Amino acid sequence: MKWILLLSSLLILNLIHASEIKEEEGVLVLTKSNFKEALKNEFILVEFYAPWCGHCKALAPEYAKAAKILAEKESNVKLGKVDATEESDLAEEFQVRGYPTLKFFRNGSPIEYNGGRQADDIVSWLLKKTGPAAKELDSVETAEALLKDNQVVVVGFFSDRESDNFKAFLAAANAVDDYPFAITNNADVLKKYEAKDGKIVLFKQFDEGKAVFDGTFDEASIKKFVQSQAMPLVVDFNHESAQKIFGGDIKSHLLMFLSKEAGHFEKYVDAAKEIAKDFREKILFVSINADEEDHNRILEFFGMKKDEVPSMRIIQLQEDMAKFKPEKADLSADAIKDFVQKFLDGKLKQHLLSQELPEDWDKNPVKVLVSTNFDEVAFDKTKDVLVEFYAPWCSHCKQLAPIYDQLAEKFKDNDAIVIAKMDATVNELEHTKIQSFPTLKLYKKGDNSVVDFNGERTLEGLSKFLESGGLEDAAGVPDVEEVPVDEDDDASRKDEL
Description:
By secondary structure, this protein is of the alpha/beta class. The chain has helices at 2-19, 35-38, 54-72, 88-93, 119-130, 140-149, 164-175, 187-192, 219-229, 239-247, 264-278, 296-301, 333-344, 371-378, 395-410, 459-467, 490-496; strands at 23-24, 27-30, 43-49, 77-83, 101-106, 109-112, 134-136, 152-157, 181-184, 199-204, 210-212, 234-236, 252-258, 284-289, 311-316, 322-324, 366-368, 384-390, 417-423, 436-437, 439-443, 450-452, 483-484. The chain has 17 helices and 23 strands. Residues 1-18 form the signal peptide.
């Protein structure tokens, strides 16, 4: 009997031990064996990470800070993390395709986390998902505490809770997860903040301190007001702000490339803030520290070199992205205002990257195209012109290169066919946007119609395509790999170096 009791006790102890979940800095460490136990929490945010991932390392202290804030608030929301490189079954189950991936579980059901990466952003998003859309401020003390604890707070001063304006405010509060919303009809709170009944005020711990909404009372207008006013007049670009910059409704951005080491921020940013006030909700002003190595790729994207700093550009993030360059490298207040106004008036021409045209561009069987000679060659109505749009670092482009050379050699004596290539990372065309590398397009003689080549990248496949005037791809085409334009092909770059 004693052995049975002892065995039972050991089993119970093992079960208790098995159900315990280890914590690191307030964050639950989750594995396949304890994951279901963790989901018994009504609310839990789970980060799937990789130990080697730079973005995961940057998130870690903010994630732990968020866990601490929630604990101090005595929130029932938990934070957990999964090493997806060790727990591959969990990563596959929840379709983790990149790091970090965050998923929010409500009673075991997951939704994608789409909030920011700073502790305050994480907490704000979670509180909005687990509590009322707008917190009731029933005293000055409650209001002061909320404003003190948050960089941005949106307050609706409404005595009539049945009005259409209040309903529009509440709809916007439900739709915006990044910032806390509050409501009040308390007379002391209205007096303290010199507010009027029926108004919406965005309080912020930077720039002007607050902004009063004076637009049309509908969800879209209130959301746009919040998203523009909650951002600094000049937003400093970094890992934390990038998501809000690119994810907001304002798709036109003035980018100021500056050097902190050279004192450019002190010299230019304050003046830019004054100009930014006049263009809020139309264009977002962004500062980029060109001294940071991580920002070299941005300079490359705009075809800029460090000796061109300080400088500015405008980018329009619509379906067809467009970039604009000022005539002079002048960042005075007048120059910035003039540049932005001309953009908004539609008076600027797109700035397209282009290399210098090599003197021997047509010496070899594969002709070299740049932006300036592209139209002249590709739209020659007497010839079929096959163009490969490539990236120097793309491994698939490197694999195609010898085959493409063979193709050009084969057709070099055919006056009706031209084989050409263009480095699409440093040459841009207004009429053609490249989505992946390599991309092959045939510009047909006669009507200059364009046919994409989607066949097998072999000498035979490409030859058939040309000989049929773009009507025939290779038979039995296998899956053809391409590299998206914005993918960082690290392996290829290392090979190149």
